[in-house]
Task: inverse folding
């Protein structure tokens, strides 16, 4: 019902969003083709996670259109939205595993809730997903017994249980050791190729991102600052991206939170 | 003058904040009641919550009931024997328990034992994005997580109150018949003759159902809207216990007046 380029999976046009009176996104234009992996980077509090919330229909934009798989997300009713979400997987920052269920039951959750499959059929499906993330041996553990990296992998297995067409990753590498970062990165790439998914990754991890993504979107001031190939990031002289890539404390993103003049504040009675 | 305005402003803010929250609670309750019928068919979920809220509260309820019944017997006998009607102990104890103490004390204990836990659990599930994850998997947290806990409170409250009253009557029997030496037959027959199933037992159970609804609603509401911080969850848990206890006492007054005003 929308005149879309046929292989466009996600299409955002002039999307604006604000919390209370604080504007977060000031007119984002973004389109993602089927099968693409894009990374969204930018400073903390810059609206990256908000963008995922808008794509998944968890948040409504103040204006602009969000189209996912041909559906106008903000206009959907609850049942249509849930219909769309069955085709979207999301990996949360800390996994968000259900702490009262075992690893096996966590991965079985989407099958038990969303399908009428008998338990005898669910078991091999869950074991296959767990095998894919290398944690078949951990099926009986509770989430509290898992390391951060393992929890993230179980959450990934759960998120892709129903073979979604779109995967959203909210800071999938944050707080993980380098080995786990590598594992998660490789899994994302492999799932993308094996299942033909479209992936949107919100991340701070530049190295892993450059290895993974087909395209890198840099947000700044609530707008798309740059949209470039990973190779171009390494060579760019753009001061904002350089500050980000080289981890410089001061630059276009200031070190100091806005404040009064330092000297005069010190001298105040 | 500006101080006066500031004071009025603060007053107004706290009033509008409360009205806001009341509106939120009303909308939340409406949404919750709409999904109840979906939840009722998920018996395994309700049984699990019945176990955590109801079965795990059994010991505290039974022991408290026993002690309350014993104390009632000691105090009641002391007054009754002044009028030479010590045999009516069974009636006094049974009526106090079935009409008032059973439902009310059970609800207060339930708020402290089970509802506070429900609030903390839901608050933490929200803080750790478990509810968001569920929502993203196209599973409505309201019908999967909230409604079963709410229903469990409604279902377990009358049963627990009945157990509380039973334990209390047993405690009064130990004190009155075994220790003080009231006639066993008089104790039970007077109780049987004076306690009415419709007026006393059913009204008591009805009270319990109302208390269960109120306490259950408060606990899931506070948990669902708890700020996702350590401080937020602790204050939500406190609010559950405080608001539940006050609501139970207030509702009890209203219900008692409605139920028993025509009897005398």
Result:
């Amino acid at each position: 019902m929308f005149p879309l380029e046929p292989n466009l999976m996600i299409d955002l046009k002039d999307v604006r969003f604000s919390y209370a009176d604080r504007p977060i996104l000031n007119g984002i234009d973004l389109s993602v083709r089927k099968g693409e992996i894009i990374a969204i980077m930018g400073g903390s509090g810059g609206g990256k996670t908000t963008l995922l919330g808008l794509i998944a229909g968890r948040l409504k934009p103040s204006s602009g259109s969000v189209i996912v798989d041909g559906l106008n997300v903000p206009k959907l009713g609850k049942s249509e939205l849930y219909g769309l979400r069955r085709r979207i997987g999301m990996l949360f920052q800390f996994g968000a595993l259900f702490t009262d269920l075992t690893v096996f039951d966590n991965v079985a959750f989407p099958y038990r809730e969303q399908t009428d499959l008998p338990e005898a059929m669910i078991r091999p499906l869950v074991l296959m997903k767990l095998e894919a993330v290398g944690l078949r041996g951990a099926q009986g553990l509770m989430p509290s017994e898992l390391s951060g990296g393992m929890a993230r992998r179980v959450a990934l297995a759960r998120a892709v249980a129903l073979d979604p067409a779109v995967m959203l990753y909210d800071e999938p590498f944050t707080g993980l050791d380098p080995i786990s970062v590598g594992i998660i990165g490789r899994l994302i790439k492999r799932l993308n190729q094996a299942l033909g998914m479209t992936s949107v990754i919100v991340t701070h991890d530049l190295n892993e991102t450059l290895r993974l993504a087909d395209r890198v979107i840099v947000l700044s001031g609530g707008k798309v600052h740059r949209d470039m190939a990973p190779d171009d990031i390494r060579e760019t002289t753009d001061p904002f991206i350089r500050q980000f890539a080289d981890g410089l404390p001061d630059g276009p993103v200031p070190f100091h939170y806005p404040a009064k003049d330092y000297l005069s504040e010190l001298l105040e009675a | 003058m500006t101080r006066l305005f500031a004071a009025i402003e603060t007053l107004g803010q706290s009033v509008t904040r409360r009205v806001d929250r009341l509106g939120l609670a009303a909308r939340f309750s409406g949404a919750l009641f709409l999904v109840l019928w979906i939840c009722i068919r998920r018996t395994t979920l309700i049984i699990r919550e019945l176990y955590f809220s109801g079965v795990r509260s059994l010991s505290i309820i039974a022991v408290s009931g026993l002690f309350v019944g014993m104390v009632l017997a000691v105090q009641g006998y002391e007054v009754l024997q002044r009028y030479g009607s010590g045999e009516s102990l069974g009636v006094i104890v049974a009526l106090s328990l079935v009409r008032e103490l059973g439902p009310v004390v059970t609800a207060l204990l339930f708020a402290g034992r089970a509802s506070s836990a429900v609030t903390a659990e839901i608050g933490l599930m929200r803080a750790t994005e478990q509810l968001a994850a569920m929502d993203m998997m196209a599973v409505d947290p309201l019908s999967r997580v909230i409604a079963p806990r709410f229903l469990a409170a409604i279902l377990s409250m009358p049963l627990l109150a009945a157990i509380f009253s039973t334990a209390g009557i047993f405690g009064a029997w130990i004190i009155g018949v075994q220790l003080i030496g009231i006639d066993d037959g008089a104790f039970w027959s007077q109780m049987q003759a004076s306690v009415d199933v419709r007026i006393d037992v059913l009204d008591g159970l009805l009270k319990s159902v109302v208390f269960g609804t109120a306490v259950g609603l408060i606990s899931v509401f506070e948990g669902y809207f708890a700020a996702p911080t350590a401080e937020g969850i602790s204050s939500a848990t406190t609010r559950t216990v405080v608001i539940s206890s006050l609501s139970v006492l207030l509702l009890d007054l209203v219900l008692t007046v409605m139920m028993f005003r025509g009897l005398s």
Summary: DSSP finds nine helices and no strands in chain B. The two ends of chain B are 56 Å apart (CA to CA).
